[in-house]
């Protein structure tokens, strides 16, 4: 329901969905296009400002959405849920994410962005129901704090749980070392990378060093722009000079990541080495050789 319409999913093995204006009780109901498959036990309907979302239920993995305004357009199908859902499921929307619980089909708890129907569902931590079989439970959002979801098991139990949506805590520091990259370079020229460093993570949150090898067995130390172990590349692009210009048959890079705020993290998306090298194969065609000319070489 919103300020203008009531929305109803018929259920019971049908593909029907309806809406009705709230202000005019005598007007006819509008019918949406038929759902791609019949709903069953556990079907659920929910909406945001742009779409209706339908969980099919019926021990299936199907999930659909439909624009609110154009009732005749076809329904869109999301990627399949990771687990079957039967009866007594619920769908809630928080900060552009859909959350689905399995209820009596299992302990699964899933999340999906509202924007991209084809991306896979995220599998969240299972609800800790223990030996209790969830049945006729419920799931609600804290009306005063949308970061909190509360769940009850039902089935004549007193189990009651809370899920914190944004409880993500990052380590204060960490490193990533790449696999050996086969270059066959006669000289290295520069490094480029794409990264994301929120202001909240602090200064020097992403630093990089490189190491080289001629045989992929014996490696140099990881070094920074002056060729020593105590310096780091901190901005892209980075021009290489001195001993760092090679040659280098193999190269590794090491990223040092750090944050001063455990709720935020830097991210390194890609890394590129620019270099010069000889082609692995080639041909040479000589000039015409005149055997009768003593000075023709």
Q: Secondary structure elements and their pairing?
A:
Blueprint: E1 5-9, E2 17-21, E3 30-31, E4 44-47, E5 51-55, E6 63-67, E7 76-77, E8 90-94, E9 97-101, E10 109-113, E11 122-123, E12 138-141, E13 148-152, E14 160-164, E15 173-177, E16 181-196, E17 206-213, E18 238-239, E19 248-258, E20 267-277
Antiparallel strand pairs: 1-2, 2-3, 4-5, 5-6, 6-7, 8-9, 9-10, 10-11, 12-13, 13-14, 15-19, 16-18, 16-19, 16-20, 17-19
List low-confidence stretches. none
Mean pLDDT value: 89
Beta-strand residue percentage: 35-45%
- Helix and strand run: EEEEEEEEEEEEEEEEEEEE
Describe this structure in words.
It contains no helices and 20 strands. The protein has strands at residues 5-9, 17-21, 30-31, 44-47, 51-55, 63-67, 76-77, 90-94, 97-101, 109-113, 122-123, 138-141, 148-152, 160-164, 173-177, 181-196, 206-213, 238-239, 248-258, 267-277. With 297 residues, the protein is mostly beta strands. The strands form five sheets. Strands 15, 16, 17, 18, 19 and 20 form a six-stranded antiparallel β-sheet that branches. A four-stranded antiparallel β-sheet has the order 4-5-6-7, with no helix packed on it. Strands 8-9-10-11 form a four-stranded antiparallel β-sheet, with no helix packed on it. The chain is elongated.
């Amino acid at each position: 329901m919103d300020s203008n319409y009531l929305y109803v999913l018929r259920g019971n093995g049908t593909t029907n969905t309806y809406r009705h204006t709230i202000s005019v009780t005598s007007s006819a109901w509008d019918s949406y296009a038929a759902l791609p498959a019949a709903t069953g036990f556990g079907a659920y309907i929910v909406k945001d400002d742009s779409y209706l979302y339908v969980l099919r239920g019926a021990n299936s993995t199907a999930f659909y959405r439909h624009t609110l305004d154009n009732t005749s357009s076809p329904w869109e199908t999301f990627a399949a849920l990771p687990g079957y859902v039967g009866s007594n499921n619920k769908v809630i929307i928080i900060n552009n994410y859909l959350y689905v619980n399995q209820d009596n089909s299992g302990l699964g708890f899933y999340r999906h962005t509202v924007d991209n129907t084809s991306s896979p569902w995220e599998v969240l931590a299972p609800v800790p129901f223990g030996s209790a079989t969830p049945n006729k439970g419920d799931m609600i959002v804290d009306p005063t704090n949308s970061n909190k979801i509360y769940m009850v098991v039902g089935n004549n139990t007193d189990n009651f749980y809370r899920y914190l949506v944004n409880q993500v805590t990052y380590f204060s520091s960490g490193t990533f070392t790449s696999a050996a990259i086969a270059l066959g370079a006669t000289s290295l020229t520069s490094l480029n990378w794409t990264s994301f460093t929120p202001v909240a993570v602090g200064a020097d949150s992403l630093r990089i060093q490189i190491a080289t090898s001629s045989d992929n067995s014996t490696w140099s130390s990881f070094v920074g722009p002056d060729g020593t172990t105590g310096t780091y590349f901190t901005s892209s692009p980075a021009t290489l000079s001195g001993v760092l210009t090679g040659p280098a048959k193999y190269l590794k890079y090491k990223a040092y990541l750090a944050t001063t705020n455990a709720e935020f993290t830097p991210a390194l998306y890609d890394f590129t080495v620019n270099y010069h090298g000889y082609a692995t194969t080639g041909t040479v065609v000589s000039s015409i050789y005149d055997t009768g000319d003593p000075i023709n070489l």
